[in-house]
Amino acid sequence: MQFTSGIVEQAVEALSSFPGIGKRTALRLVMYLLKRPEMEVAHLADALLKLKTELHLCEVCGNVSDHKRCHVCVNPNRSEEVICVVEDFSDLMAIESTAQFKGKYHVLGGLISPMDGVGPDDLNIASLLGRLENSLVGEVMMALSATVEGDTTMFYLAKKLKPMGVTITCIARGIAVGGEIEYADEVTLGRSIAQRTEYLL
Amino acid sequence: MYLQRLQLFNFKNHSQRSLEFCDGINTLTGANGVGKTNILDAVHYLANAKSYFNGIDSQIIEHDKTFFTVKGQFEGELPAEILIQFEGGKKTIKKNDKAYPRLLDHIGMIQTVFITPYDIDLVLGNSEDRRRFVDLSLCQIDKAYLQNLSTYKKALEQRNALLKTMQGRYIDPDLLSSYDAKLIPAGILIHQRRKEFIEHILTFFTTVYQNLSSGSETPSIQYDSPLNNGDFATLLADTHRIDMAAQRTSVGIHKDDLIFGLGEFPLKKYGSQGQIKSFIIALKLAQYNYFQAVTKNHPILLLDDIFEKIDEERAQRLIDMVGASGYGQILITDTHSSRVETHFQPIDANKLHHHL
Ligand SMILES: Nc1ncnc2c1ncn2[C@@H]1O[C@H](COP(=O)(O)OP(=O)(O)O)[C@@H](O)[C@H]1O
Ligand SMILES: [Mg+2]
Ligand SMILES: [Zn+2]
């Protein structure tokens, strides 16, 4: 790409560093922004900057928050007895939108993956173990991806949680709603059979 | 099931190519370098979602292009159009215009058996080449095997990365065993299936070998695996310290090998060129027979340069043996049109010839 303006070039370079955005798309975004009112662009810049200057990670659970503690942690109606462990805050949001979970969360901030240079010390694991000491927590529910990284992280966590005397659970993995059994892969189907539940009328 | 039409875009040296095939014997002739082997590889790609020769998909793209596609129209009981596309580091597979959620969901729909001059590596190459043969035999008919192999490879890669980053320092056994917990069930299943596979093909393989070679020696295949010597979980736990020092995983099915012999002698050291060629063809026909036994269908047979590189007499016997149960679909390449014609003239089957 041949630029005639250093400022445009800088903006294109910056935008194309986003995942999934190439130079061409970045240029389209720049052209779009140039047409918008200054206020709107300032607002965008401000919103982006705040992500770094004002956003907190909740000091208890690691969730993103506008305050020192997130809205789940300060909510007195949430049960202290169950902690749900998730990989990152987008998974937390997904579980929140099911409205099925009334306990609290713990956000790991990733999964153990030596290939990507992520070890247990790079994740919020020590703080999870700390939360369990002298607490009301009776169950830790692990809701991590069904990948090699998710499974090995769960195994490692379970090893560390076991001596603390809490019940350790992981969310069931089964056939997708609307999915036909015929199309389910063998592993999922096998696990669904092994972990079948009583049919309640 | 047979491949009725193959369409390639930017696949190796084929910018754009469309070919029709019959359910029978298809001959592809042309000078060296026109891309005959590449066409067979494209058919292998349709079945296995990867090249037989080169695991790096970006190198399959024709030079100076940004993507490639392989499209195959299959006819038979369940006609289907398969489209595989590779672009921007991402591979997608569509069956009848609908994308599979995972690539491995596609594998197993079509079986291919490839015989090429490069197969000499099965004997002369390292253990990886032999594991690849076994994996290719099992992945094409056994989803659980494929899935467990993929899990095993991923967990092994992570475990080795961990051992490497720690550079010999002490590793929390809980962390190391979190990988063992994935490796153990997958490894045990893979070991079991590999063992059954070798046991299953042995008799047929021996018969074919003796048919192909004039000698009376008995060929042997021994499945060598660390898992033959004990319980995988114990083996892994016992080698934690060794692994930390070595910075890689020292036991597991990734160390498996096949030991080929003739009589009492190792094939690699003592086999003549002819004996080695017969051994390889016998292995491939055993694979063909295995697919046929499991699927009750003929796999697609891809024969690359067999008259030139294997010698005509052995190649003729190979074709006769394949035809013993009726001819399925065969794609065969040669530099000389007249040579293939002579060999196939007496055979009563559908035939189609392309000169590239
Ligand atoms: N990615 C690629 N892009 C362009 N050409 C390629 C690519 N990979 C291989 N080739 C070319 O394909 C040709 C070999 O084709 P091949 O199928 O082996 O020919 P044949 O079997 O007819 O002798 C070679 O000229 C090689 O350079
Ligand atoms: Mg060739
Ligand atoms: Zn919180």
What does this molecule look like?
The complex is a heterodimer of chains A (201) and B (356). Chain A has helices at 6-15, 23-35, 38-53, 71-74, 89-96, 126-132, 148-161, 186-194, and strands at residues 56-57, 64-65, 82-86, 104-107, 139-142, 167-170. With 201 residues, chain A is an alpha/beta fold. Chain A folds into two domains: 6-54, Orthogonal Bundle (Helicase, Ruva Protein, domain 3), CATH 1.10.8; 57-170, Dna Topoisomerase Vi A Subunit, Chain: A, domain 2, CATH 3.40.1360. In chain A, the strands form two sheets. A four-stranded parallel beta sheet of chain A has the order 4-3-5-6. The longest helix of chain A is centred in the first third of the chain and has 16 residues, at 38-53. Chain B is of the alpha/beta class and 356 residues long. Chain B folds into two domains: 1-111 and 297-356, Rossmann fold (3-Layer(aba) Sandwich), CATH 3.40.50; 120-296, Glutathione S-transferase Yfyf (Class Pi), Chain A, domain 2. Chain B has twelve helices and 14 strands. Chain B has helices at 36-48, 121-124, 127-139, 143-165, 173-212, 232-238, 240-246, 267-270, 273-295, 306-309, 312-322, 337-344; strands at 2-11, 14-20, 25-29, 67-75, 80-87, 90-95, 98-99, 112-115, 219-224, 257-262, 265-266, 300-303, 330-334, 351-355. In chain B, strands 2-1-4-5-6-7 form a six-stranded antiparallel beta sheet, covered by helices on one side. Chain B has a five-stranded parallel beta sheet with strand order 8-12-13-3-14, sandwiched between helices. In chain B, helix 4 (143-165) packs across helix 5, helix 5 (173-212) packs across helix 9 and helix 9 packs parallel to helix 11 (312-322). Chain B is globular and about 65 Å long. The chains are: A alpha/beta (201), B alpha/beta (356). Chains A and B meet through helix 7 of A and helix 4 and helix 5 of B. The complex binds adenosine-5'-diphosphate (ADP), magnesium ion (MG) and zinc ion (ZN).
